[in-house]
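Model the whole thing, not chain by chain.
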Amino acid sequence: MKCIIVDDDLNCIKALAGIIKDYLPKIEIVGTAANIKEAVKLINANHLDIVFLDVEIQTETGFDLFKYISAPNFEVIFTTAHEKYALKAIKSSCFDFLLKPIEIQELVNTINRLEMQKGAAADIGKRTNVLLDNLSSHSKKVEKLAIPTKDGMMFINVKDIMYLEGDAKYTTLHLYNKERYVSSKNIGEFEELLDAETFFRCHRSWIINLNSIVKYLKNDNRVLLSDDTLIDVSTRKKDEFLKLFNRI
Amino acid sequence: MQTETTYITRLTRTLLLFLFFVSITLHLLSQSSKRDSLKKELKLATHDTIRCKILSALIDSEFDVKIWPVYNAELESICSDNLKKLKEGDPLYIFYMGNLSSAYANFGYLKKQQGNIPDALSYALKGLKLQEKLNDKKGKAATLNNIGFIYKSQEKPAKALEYFNQCLAIQEEIKDKAGTASSFNNIGYIYHYQAVQEKNINAKQTLFEKAMTFHKKSLNVQEEIGNKRGIALSYYNIGYIFLDRTDSITASGYFNKSLQLYTELGDRRGTEQTLSVIGALQSEKGQNELARKNVEKALQIAREDGIAQGIVTASKTLAKIYSRSGNWKDAYRMEVLYKQMSDSIANEKNQKDLFQKSYQYAYDKKVTADSIRISSEKKMSELKLQKELAIKNNLIIIIISAILTLVVFGVLLVFLLRSNRERKKAYQKLQQQTELLVKQSRQIAKYQSQMNPHFIFNALNSIQGFVVNNEKEKTLQQLQAFSKLMRQTLSNSDCETISLQTEIIYLQLYVIFEKERFTNKFDFVIECYADRNEIELPPMLIQPFVENALKHAGLNDVVAPVVKLSIRANADLLEICIYDNGNGITKSKSEIIQNSHAISIVKSRIKLLFENEGRNYEENYFSLRSVPEIESGTEVIIKLPLISKY
């Protein structure tokens, strides 16, 4: 496997390169770049499998790479120290990321998973679009989601989701058009990604799109959605829910 | 006796006020009759050209949107009636066309204000046709510009662009420099808007470039004609393009230039806007002090001049700045201001809708009334009869309005008294809430930060030890554990409560890290009889006791050392027990610890937790026991209110 490392901090490059040499000898580092321009040169000159891409590169961001490479044919693993919204966008588009300082086991797991999934890279163009859409979202809200399902990656608009149903480690997404997708992410991960003004975790196993509510049934503390589904609001969440509900 | 006199004084005051209201009503009535007579005069004016002139003058001088459209309607009908009769060559033909086109422009303006876009557009297009016939280029440019703005407000940038460009072509033809500059600006603004919306990165860049070109063109013309206000606006707009292209450094440069000009000009609105955006940029860069000064200045201007949107933006930014510097009280004050202002803007919008409806109603009514009166005038030709009728009508109107005034006055009085009382109550409540919140947030911030600093430096120090000893593996392992711990600490500190699961993982991380530091051989056992995912507790409450056990229990001296954390849900309490089988603490020491600062902090945190849940704190919710009270070691028991997330 061939890779390059893009980072403006030389020490970060050294650290990651050192770990790769020691723990992942199957990966060959064909070059390193301190900015996007150098990275583009390396990408065009080599047939790469992986690009380790720093998110914060001085005046640029790692995402600027896609200005020059519109159809990537390599996997991207983002590296970042701490950036909340960028992480949200990365997670929503199912890209891999590593937090700095790099944890060896996490790096090894990520590489192994990528190797197993070979072929999933066909989605990379679509995932890149989701990533860029969410990053350019004016409201800083996640607007699109890439969802890993058993049939492969699905791409949906967040506003098409009516509600989400959590079941241990799986989450079923119910769309307005009656389609359903089962994702291997748990419901908590979705709660983190979705915009809290529109999506409300009203119960341990439910997240509802507030726009889909038709009626609130006060007596049994449930909501009626536009497709006649009845969903429980837990007692702890009742006050918070009513506050939101009154705002609509 | 005293109560009686106060009652009488109050009665007199009420009577006086009543008389005052009646006199105002009479005054208004006399004014309205004056206006009526003026209208009659207008109707008596035989020549339509004179009527047109009077009407135009009336429209120009009347600002009440309930009144001028009525004149405008008359103007429109006179002009179109006459145009039907006249031939194109007639000198009066041009006169009526000109008047009709301004009547259309007026209606177009009105419809846009009311949000009736289709009608606004159709009036503008009608006006445009007339202006074309009249070859009125300046008027045409103005109408094209208006249509551009209508499409802009409808978020149809392509259409807006089309009209702004047509407008620009005419302005260039007639060498209207000021107009050209403003069209460049409008076009630049549209490209900027499109760039922000555009998803494709290459197309986005091209649009930003275009926007930049037009704003720079505008800037050149403004400089040429020496319009400082225009130059300042261009700087501001160019700054915003750089800001949206995430080049905040260049953006600041332009904003500063703009600010300088606006200050020179004494343009308060411009100054307010630029200060606000400069402050927000500085705050993002972490220049808190500079940011605070600028945004405070912006807020002051916005408040003095009543710029609602300015207050909203500035208060939001200030809330962030204050909270970052730990000034919770002002942060809360700003948060309240922000909420109030954004609410009132929303209300104002609602009121506008309401007003538009009532306006429409009043307008329809007036038109009908006018037409009825016209027909009745035809029937009754005698002026005397009319006058008598008018007096009768006036009498009825006076009586009705007197009654109305009385009712309104009474309602107003009750309302004022009541709202005053309510406002006072609300104010007191808000103040109490603020104080409580400030107190609580200060305390919480204090509690949570107190454990961190010495731990951070000790940890770094111990990692340094591994580096010096050339222990690469250990260094990497400890560094990773440390960063994980810090990340978790940071994210926990954002939360009032975290899940039991998160807390347990955090403590495990902590113990693994510390074990490596002290090369201790103890076992860390966790027993949990509670739903880890559902139950919530405040962060950093258990950790100090675990830390204490690791450092001070003397675990190295005992056989099979153990630190045990048991957690169980018991009725409405969450019971947490931290036990170690170390040396325990001597009684004198335990007395010191009982009174120690750290423990009093934990106690008040627990107390606060119960208060927030509306429950009472009992003394036995915290206990610390050691030998000889228990067989061996030390045991801390904490009882928290059982809080479930769902």
